[in-house]
Backbone:
């Protein structure tokens, strides 16, 4: 069927007739790209009942559905609308069915692949388990650590008599670093109320300090005690000078901030001399706690003996709590001094020590409770693991020492690859979850420092008794009287000014 399209220059009106189709477009002759076929400006096209030719934005003639504008609403003619909807629905339904079939087929394929993957995963897991079991069996056959893992240990009392080398022994502190300089450092501090408020008063009431002048006066009391008081311990002056040197040489305060260190000292300025000693030791410990310098220069054993000695001091306070006595420093010193030679700590100078509310039989039970409940193998191992975690004993130095001991253990066996054995040993020794050294392996490590030894069944008290008897016998034989002696491994002796090695 042929129709004619007449082009007129009219605006905003569309006309559609069912029987004889005449289309009037909004268009201008000058804007249409076509060639005139005759003088009446018309041309013939093939008619499609569902579509007609019109123009697009590019001024080209294109084919699309006709539309009618009625009441300002543009819609498709009813019969065309229905026909198009039916065609779309029929086509859409067919397409949906085809796609549904395709999807179902793909789902079946995917399920089959999932089953295959699961089967392969199961096979891989079974193979992995087999490999692990074979590897474990191979390692067990290759390296046997059962001797260590099944071993039992006990405290070796030899280490209690090893002289502990202090950090201050290696730090030169002449009069150039007199602790009087702490007052100059204090004067330069810009102290605020908050700095004083954290120091609660005695009995947790009020505050220790009433201002900067009051704090300075109390700090001066501690300094005077350390520098000039004849009743002060030998270490007090030296340790406070070490603190002074560390603060003076750290002018930019990149490592230490002097505020709380100096207030710690000052907080003990208005109390007894024993408390002043406690303050000096606390400040010193805070500033030398990691001991990296000590370890690097003098080996990890020096640091190990020191942390264990400090631990033994701490355990005296735990022991004291079991007596339910008055919480009094002079009473604690009494217990500490009564045990000092037996547990390997220094005697503290305190003319005011006394038995405040201590039970009558405390002397008879103190040593037994100390070694039976506090300084035990399990507690020592836990504490050493803790100080390694806190980096008081450098981790890498501990590993290096482990490697040295392991190498010494197997170097005579030419059939063992030392590197491979060391790796396997450390892999077995370290808990991969916590990072701690497993107790049995750490016991083996500590045995090389005479801290622990293989279990013999002999109580610590019996060891100490036999050792004290031996010490009394040696000193009496050499000098005709008992001397204060310190035993080193292999019985190297250091006797108050005498060096007998």
Residues:
């Amino acid at each position: 069927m042929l129709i004619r399209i007449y082009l007129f220059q009219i605006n905003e009106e569309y006309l559609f007739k069912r029987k004889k189709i005449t289309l009037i477009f909004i268009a201008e002759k000058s804007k249409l790209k076509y060639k005139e076929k005759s003088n009446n400006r018309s041309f013939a096209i093939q008619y499609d009942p569902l579509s007609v030719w019109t123009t697009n934005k590019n001024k080209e003639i294109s084919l699309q559905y006709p539309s009618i504008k009625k009441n300002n609403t543009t819609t498709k003619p009813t019969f065309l609308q229905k026909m198009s909807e039916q065609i779309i629905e029929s086509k859409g339904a067919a397409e949906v069915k085809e796609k549904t079939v395709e999807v179902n087929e793909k789902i079946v394929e995917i399920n089959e692949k999932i089953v295959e993957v699961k089967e392969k995963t199961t096979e891989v897991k079974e193979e992995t388990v087999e490999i692990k079991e074979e590897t474990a069996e191979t390692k067990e056959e290759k390296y046997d650590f059962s001797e260590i893992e099944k071993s039992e240990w006990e405290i070796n009392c030899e280490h209690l008599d090893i002289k502990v080398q202090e950090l201050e022994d290696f730090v030169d502190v002449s009069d150039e670093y007199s602790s009087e300089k702490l007052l100059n450092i204090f004067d330069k501090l810009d102290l605020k109320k908050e700095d004083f408020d954290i120091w609660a008063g005695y009995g947790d009431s009020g505050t220790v300090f009433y201002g900067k002048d009051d704090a300075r006066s109390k700090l001066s009391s501690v300094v005077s005690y350390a520098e000039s008081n004849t009743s002060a311990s030998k270490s007090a002056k030296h340790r406070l000078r070490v603190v002074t040197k560390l603060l003076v040489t750290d002018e930019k305060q990149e490592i230490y901030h002097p505020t709380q260190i100096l207030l710690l000292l000052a907080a003990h300025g208005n109390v007894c001399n024993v408390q002043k000693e406690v303050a000096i030791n606390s400040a010193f410990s805070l500033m030398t706690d990691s001991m990296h310098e000590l370890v690097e220069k003098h080996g990890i054993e020096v640091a190990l003996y020191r942390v264990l000695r400090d631990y033994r001091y701490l355990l005296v306070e735990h022991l004291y709590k079991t007596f339910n006595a008055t919480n009094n420093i002079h009473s604690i010193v009494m217990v500490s001094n009564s045990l000092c030679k037996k547990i390997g700590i220094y005697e503290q100078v305190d003319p005011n020590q006394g038995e405040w509310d201590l039970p009558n039989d405390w002397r008879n039970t103190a040593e037994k409770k100390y070694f039976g409940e506090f300084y035990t193998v399990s507690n020592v191992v836990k504490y050493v693991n803790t100080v390694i975690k806190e980096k008081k004993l450098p981790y890498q130095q501990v590993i290096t020492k482990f490697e040295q001991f392991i190498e010494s253990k197997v170097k005579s066996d030419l059939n063992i690859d030392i590197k491979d054995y060391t790796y396997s040993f450390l892999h077995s020794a370290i808990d991969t979850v916590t990072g701690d050294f497993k107790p049995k392996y750490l016991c083996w490590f500590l045995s090389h420092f005479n801290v622990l030894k293989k279990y013999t069944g002999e109580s610590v008290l019996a060891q100490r008794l036999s050792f004290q008897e031996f010490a009394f016998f040696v000193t009496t034989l050499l000098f005709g009287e008992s001397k204060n002696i310190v035993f080193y491994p292999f019985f190297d002796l250091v006797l108050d000014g005498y060096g007998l090695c």
Observations:
- The radius of gyration is 47 Å.
- Residues 2-75 form one domain.
